[in-house]
């Protein structure tokens, strides 16, 4: 009887939540919910909407929804001031005020530094009150494009590199993030808050980061579009690191076009990530990435260009590619795929543990002010405050294993070599020999393949499981293949229109 009563109360809560949710859809007579960047810019130009009104709308949505969803850690106290500034610039028609991102609020995953009144903590209480020396490189580019930094999105603490037992979407600062489609479902991590916030219309645009699956997985589980760029295409300067080999920063939005618009704004050279961004800059096409948002690309380019797509482990129903001109090559297998998917066997775990300690210690030492200056001090902080419920709930096994490493020695070099060999003889060989343009998978299972090679991937909403949890379809390719992946992802999105607004089911 108690269980039935609890279920009834939970169902009533979900119904009330949905009813409340549906009542607030407009801002100055314009429907803001589910609006794209282009919708918002058109509204700005037609004087139907101001940046201030848009920021106020999102702040109200955060106030209303975030106590349940926990997608946002902190809002920018200067957000309304920045919105007023953007409105004044538009009114004066100042240079740059016609940029696609001008006046558009954006949430940043809380491992991306901002030199303002916001904290940058990776979701950890250990970094609360720390002061960064400068904006992250991608933030500098966003500000230049006129974007408004609305706040910081929640995440799996330390980008899911602290504990083996903590659930996805949990951090000491942010609490437990909730999937807005099915509140009890996995929001996935570590860029969970970025995906939750965009999916639930607490913002239209966010940034996430990925080392292995952290953009692809939460984007798929929360019914949004995520782009994991080629490593180095976007700068990592000012981002709390895990691995310089695998870390990348990418957009999470509700549409492919929005994500690509943001990608265009953040790619390119980063002085504080000079080597990687200089090498990857050769992949940036003249004229940017939005030129590959072609309405006919899925139905037309496949048949004309004879694009070839590999389908691997597809478990959901989506548009029949063959009917739209694609050449499908099935029953192919990436060499040593079981080894690649096992981080211990592949060497990925060995490499990441050593790289994390080195990279994090370097990041912490560069902070202008910080309660902690090394991984060892972060571990000590967690142990000292282990009586605090939020901290003691989960362990720090990964931290301890990382702290036990001693630089890049023989074992780490062997692990890195093994990862490179697995990539060359596996994914790269398969793609090149079969003249494939993309790998297509349902879900985020392909993430380690893309992660260890620094390869790009785009996740697009595709379907929903029996409980109503979204399933994303992931298009992956070789380094620098973003233009082709964008064509394919955009074509798929426009042909299927699979995304539905969140349902907030219990």
TrEMBL record:
- Gene3D superfamilies according to UniProt: Amidase signature (AS) domain (3.90.1300.10)
- Per the database record, which ranges form the Amidase domain? 54-280
- Signal peptide residue numbers: 1-29
Highest taxon in the source lineage? Eukaryota
Q: Which InterPro entries match?
A: Amidase_dom, AS_sf
What keywords would UniProt list here? Answer: Signal
Q: Which PANTHER family match?
A: AMIDASE (PTHR42678), OS04G0183300 PROTEIN (PTHR42678:SF34)
Name of the protein in question: Amidase C869.01
Q: Which gene encodes it?
A: LOC105169917
